[in-house]
Amino acid sequence: MSFFSKSLKPLFIVTGLLSLSLSALFSAHANEHENKHQHDKQHAHNERADVMVMNGYARATFALAKTGAVYFTLHNQSDSDKTLVSVSVAKEVADEAQIHTTVMEGDMMKMRELTEGVKIKPGEMVAFKSGGNHIMLLGLTKGLVEGSNIPVTLSFDNGSELKLVLPVKKDEAKGHHHHH
User: Where is the signal peptide (predicted)?
Assistant: First the structure.
């Protein structure tokens, strides 16, 4: 190998890596720009939910699990009551999603479906968490694998919907088990 090719080889490698990095950066920016326009278009045509979703995730399960749980906090940013009336997931994830709460009956914790939904007053935040309100996924098609994502749609009483893609994570609150 000549001196010339030995000295230029690192330069070609650095230049190649730099152009790959810039290409990825431009691609990410273009994608972010397009997503913002899609988001703006969606909200221009739908009645807005005016509800912000924070800290959302689905709890990872074992491979053969038939039920799963989804947690998040809803913040009503409007000046009127909002009611989360239903939740849905893709059929590839589970047969159905239900809004549940946990109640004490004697010395037993039991889960109940909230068929009337959950009302969120103006400015209020409502947490969906282990041991309280949560979303139950029933009839999982396969286990929820940590590191993957699942699509979830929240439907409100005014006809608006929030489409989310939530990460699957291990539950922060260890030791809480959901049994039906």
Answer: 1-30
Q: Tens of pLDDT along the chain (180 residues)?
A: 555 556 666 555 544 544 444 444 445 444 454 544 444 433 433 456 699 999 999 999 999 999 999 999 999 999 999 999 999 999 999 999 999 999 888 999 899 999 999 999 999 999 999 999 999 999 999 999 999 999 999 999 999 999 999 999 997 654 444 444
Phi-psi region of 12 (alpha: psi -120 to 50; beta: other; left: phi over 0): alpha
**Strand, coil or helix: 140:** strand
The C-alpha atoms of residue 97 and residue 69 are separated, in whole angstroms, by 9
At residue 132's C-alpha, the angle toward residues 113 and 51, to 5°, is: 85
Q: Provide the whole-model pTM.
A: 0.69
Within 10 A of 128 (CB to CB), how many other CB atoms are there? 23
What does 144-167 look like in DSSP terms, one character per residue?
--TT-EEEEEEEETTS-EEEEEEE
Task: Provide the residue type at 4 as one letter.
Answer: F
Strand partners, 58: 70, 168
